[in-house]
């Protein structure tokens, strides 16, 4: 309450961020989605990812995405529908300072796409100590995926705004990040 009042945070949405961590049970995940194909994000397909991201977030985060995929040690994947070539989801995986893997973010049009992106991103890392992810409690599929991975809830926290809540397509937001810069 003191932080909220002194900093002027007047808008507190009902949704909460849930942070999960642990050693992921990768064998529990589906590796592929029959109607999609997974590929690396490169400068050649980045425009498609930026457009998809903007549809989810409601704002253009091109600069963030360009910098995120160029970061050393990052694995960036997208998923396309085989039938029409449209983006069905994407994820950027990074290692944290405690040698865990963290998807920052992972957006998908369905639970099975999110699962395939998670599997294909995490398996590309060697010698990691665990998986850390953050999600919103309004996406049941994201919570189910975290539980399927065998991760434990570490904390539940509110988000606060000074003027207005940001709208986004939360059903497509499986894992958020980096939450310190973007709330989705």
Q: How would you sum up this structure, described in words?
A:
Pfam families: Acetyltransf_18. Residues 49-174 form the YitH/HolE acetyltransferase (GNAT) domain. InterPro entries: Acyl/Acetyltrans_Enzymes, YitH/HolE_GNAT. This is YitH/HolE acetyltransferase (GNAT) domain-containing protein. The protein has 184 residues and is of the alpha+beta class. The protein has one domain (3-175): Aminopeptidase, CATH 3.40.630.90. 26% of the residues lie in helices and 29% in strands. It contains 5 helices and 8 strands; from the N terminus they run αββααβββαβαββ. It has helices at residues 2-7, 46-57, 62-70, 111-122, 140-148; strands at residues 16-22, 36-40, 75-81, 87-95, 100-108, 130-136, 152-158, 173-175. Strands 1, 2, 3, 4, 5, 6, 7 and 8 form an 8-stranded mixed beta sheet that branches. Helix 4 (111-122) links the parallel strand 5 and strand 6 (130-136). The radius of gyration is 16 Å and the shape is globular. The two termini are 23 Å apart. The model has no long low-confidence stretch (mean pLDDT 90).
Summarize the structure.
This protein is of the alpha+beta class and 184 residues long. Helices cover 26% and strands 29% of the residues. It has five helices and eight strands.
Uncertain spans: none
Residue-averaged pLDDT, rounded? 90
Strand content: 25-35%
H and E string: HEEHHEEEHEHEE
Task: Give a short account of the largest sheet.
Answer: 8 strands, mixed
Pfam family, one: Acetyltransf_18
Protein name: YitH/HolE acetyltransferase (GNAT) domain-containing protein
Domain YitH/HolE acetyltransferase (GNAT): 49-174
